[in-house]
Amino acid sequence: MSALKVESQISDSPTDVATNPAPQGASSSSKKGLRFWLIFLALSFTTFLSALDYTALAAALPVIVHDLKGSDFAWIGTAYTLTSTAFLPMSGGLAQILGRRSAFILALAFFALGSALCGSAQDMNWMIAARAIQGVGSGAIVALASIIISDLVTLQERGTYNGLLGLTWTVSLALGPLIGGAMADRGIWRWIFYINLPVSGVAFILATFFMTLPTPQGSFKDKFFAMDWIGNALVACGSTGLVLALTWGGGTYPWSSAAVLVPLVLGVAFLVGWIVYEVKIASHPTVAPELIGNRTSVSGYLQTFLVSLIIAAWMYYIPVYFQACKDASPTQAGISMFGGTMVVGPFIVASGISVTATQKYRPQLWFGWVLLTVGFGVMGIVGAATPSAQPIAFSAILSAGAGIIFSVAYFPVLSPLPVSLNARALALFIFLRVLAQVWGISFGSVILTNELTKRLPAEFLQITGDGVERVFGLIPSIPNLAQPLKADVQHAFAESIRPVWYTMTGIAFLGLLSSLMMADIPLHNKVDESWRLEGKSTVTQQSSLDMEEHERKIVSAA
């Protein structure tokens, strides 16, 4: 059972960093073999699916809502990210208890099942339920990919491998809006989901035969009771309550109604209870208190939360702008997003490689936040009559900043921590990223719905019959409206989206301020020997000397 214990080797003082990183670990700077690259390929495939599903669906959402005769525009995204959030913390525990390969294959199975059900959805309730199943697998896949990479590659090297994964993001982010838009235009949007199945199959084969990572010892009973079931239940209930309140507030129900206040209060209470339970009671905590015991890690967690919230809002509502205000079809909206999404990948690659080359991460993050703040700030001047070239150019600026932050934000999280805490640290990191996406989509939906309620012409609202929520399903029909109603509707959409951009500008500036908390912590050159590829041992005398030197530098930084 020793493999199930989380080693607590971090200082309890509220200073910058841990002063005693785990001595157990090994240098892994050697040449990578074929098995490593096949595992990396499996992780790249799943990363590709995650990004493709995200961007392709965003471009096709208005058509999907229209075809399924639904009104819950935001819930297609919210259901996915809600279950990702609720079950994601469990993925770190499953990786520790069942082993990396078993947990990864289980997550892949949930994702594939959800994708098949999404593709066959006949109404909105079916689609939302299927997206919830898909989200369970997707959140775990993303977390496990990061955990497995951290098992095989040292923090000093990881910028380079993040850059390589960034190439995958470049392709999928660039192609996603085009693929999603084109499929929606041709009435075959279901293949946005069906395309996940063969790629998942390839990833499954690679993981089954080549992901030969150690499996923890112990009986199923021991492993079952080692899971943090109470903690996971608390965070699932808390996340659900918050998302329900944010989704319903101001649109479906007034903010002062019991339907909003009850889940809001209960959600906050459950999350507070989760934190107290993890810190004070849990014997195998999902979130070890040591993870947030230094300001540099806290800064990294806060930055990833804020950037994920911001980009989720942008990805979901910039297609709404192009389709509602510029007469764009889903394909044309995808092309308009191309300038922004194409920029993300190269900046992920460049920033990751720069961290490996310089062994520094703070300057890249500061630069990224400046770009993100400026990009959203200038988006605030975009109106219905603004030439399309302007929002495309502004999107490229903010996308560059987002690419940098996405690539680099986990370095301040991991650099102060011992490698034995990598899995739990990264599970919390991805949990916050996915939770933030829920907030970003919900915040955007609340702001946009409330603004549209005030601004849309009464004549257009009468067409919907069921209130402003039905408006999103009517976006494809806006180009066919007669003047002056068409111009009034487009103006209303443009003015209603503007407050979303202003809100994101303020959040981006908060992210810049939070990045000032980071200390300049050296990047260690270790991996956790407990999770090395079977048959590979990399412990050397030089490894021990390297870690001793790293400890001296960390103490100096503190």
Automatic annotation (TrEMBL):
Q: How does it sit in the membrane?
A: Multi-pass membrane protein
Q: Which residue ranges are recorded for the region named Disordered?
A: 1-29
Q: Which domain of life is it from?
A: Eukaryota
Where the record annotates domain Major facilitator superfamily (MFS) profile, the positions are: 39-523
Main location, first listed in the record: membrane
Q: Which key words are in the record?
A: Membrane, Transmembrane, Transmembrane helix
Annotated protein name in UniProt: Mfs1.1
Species annotation? Coprinopsis marcescibilis
